[in-house]
């Protein structure tokens, strides 16, 4: 049973409204306090790292370029995704606050899936940025104007709302079994849909179709972009120029890998491998949530000299005036 403090936190749980029980690491409840230490460290790294990336891009005028605008979008999405799960994850680990109402669960599910699909779309925009920078460098500045980047950002956000919001509204009218235990410390559509009174197959199929349509088309576009990039790079005669062109894509390839691999693994584990141990699902869920927000700022700050130098200078001079940091158009220095 949940404690009285849990009922205060999720006070919209009533007898007429079904509720769920969140789970962090099944079978390791006694060690939750100790497990919370590395989890909190990862959350802190994600929050501070992405906040620093955003702050540096806003403050440094030399970073007001298309590639850094897209990076700021990625950091913003990672920040929002981290914040959307932080209360329930730490609530379960610290206070054993497991109970959550259906309404609160649907709201969290909307943000978790919405920001996840949003990150996928941002990665597509970044792939298009790399494609233009390498394959059509003369048109790069013409295509990626400030207005075009703003339009891309608005379209990306609108796309998520159009597809995710109707799904959440449909689930609001679905009847769920009350008191069922979820596999994660946050609300995840394939995990919730198992506990409906109606046949979950239709909702599960629609959820999988939506994920395949959004992330599947995004991933195909990214792969197609890199096929064209690779073809262009191979046509370059000088080996040093080939290496330099490919090196500008390393950060984005890493970001794509750390995002899509855990997401696809978790989704297929839930939908197709029902016999998977709950501990494995829990670990995959935490990797899916924390790996991209933690690693993305580390990858970009270590690999991108411009970002790294700007960070060091801001830390050294505490944001005071100094010589501007130089950057190159269309390149991750």
UniProtKB/TrEMBL annotation:
A GO CC term attached to the entry: plasma membrane
* Molecular-function GO term, any one: G protein-coupled receptor activity
For this protein, the record's Pfam families field holds:
7tm_4 (PF13853)
Q: State whether keyword Transferase applies.
A: no
Residues annotated as domain G-protein coupled receptors family 1 profile: 49-300
Superkingdom as given in the UniProt entry = Eukaryota
What name goes with this protein? Olfactory receptor
Q: Which organism is it from?
A: Ursus maritimus
This protein's encoding gene: LOC103681166
């Amino acid at each position: 049973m949940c404690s009285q403090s849990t009922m205060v936190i999720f006070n919209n749980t009533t007898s007429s409204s079904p509720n769920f029980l969140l789970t962090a690491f099944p079978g390791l409840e006694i060690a939750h306090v100790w497990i919370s230490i590395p989890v909190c460290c990862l959350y802190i790294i994600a929050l501070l790292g992405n906040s620093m990336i955003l702050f540096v891009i806003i403050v440094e005028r030399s970073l007001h370029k298309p590639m850094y605008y897209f990076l700021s979008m990625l950091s913003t999405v990672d920040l929002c995704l981290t914040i959307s799960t932080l209360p329930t994850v730490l609530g379960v680990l610290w206070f054993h606050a497991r109970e959550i109402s259906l309404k609160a669960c649907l709201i969290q599910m909307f943000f978790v899936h919405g920001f996840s699909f949003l990150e996928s779309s941002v990665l597509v925009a970044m792939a298009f940025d790399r494609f233009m920078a390498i394959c059509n460098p003369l048109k790069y500045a013409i295509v990626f104007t400030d207005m075009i980047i703003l339009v891309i950002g608005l379209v990306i956000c609108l796309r998520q709302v159009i597809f995710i919001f109707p799904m959440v509204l449909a689930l609001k009218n679905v009847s769920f079994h009350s008191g069922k235990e979820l596999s994660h410390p946050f609300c995840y559509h394939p995990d919730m849909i198992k506990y409906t009174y109606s046949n979950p197959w239709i909702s599960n199929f629609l959820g999988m179709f939506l994920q395949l349509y959004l992330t599947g088309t995004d991933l195909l576009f990214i792969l197609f972009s890199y096929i064209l990039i690779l073809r262009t790079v191979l046509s370059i005669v000088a080996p040093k120029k080939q290496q330099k062109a490919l090196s500008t894509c390393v950060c984005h390839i890493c970001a794509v890998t750390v995002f899509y691999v855990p997401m696809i693994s978790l989704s297929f584990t839930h939908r197709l491998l029902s016999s998977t141990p709950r501990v494995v699902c829990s670990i995959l869920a935490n990797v899916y949530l924390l790996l991209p927000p933690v690693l993305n700022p580390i990858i970009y700050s270590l690999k991108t000299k411009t970002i790294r130098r700007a960070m060091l200078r801001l830390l050294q001079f505490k944001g005071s005036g100094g010589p501007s940091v130089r950057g190159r158009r269309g390149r991750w220095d």
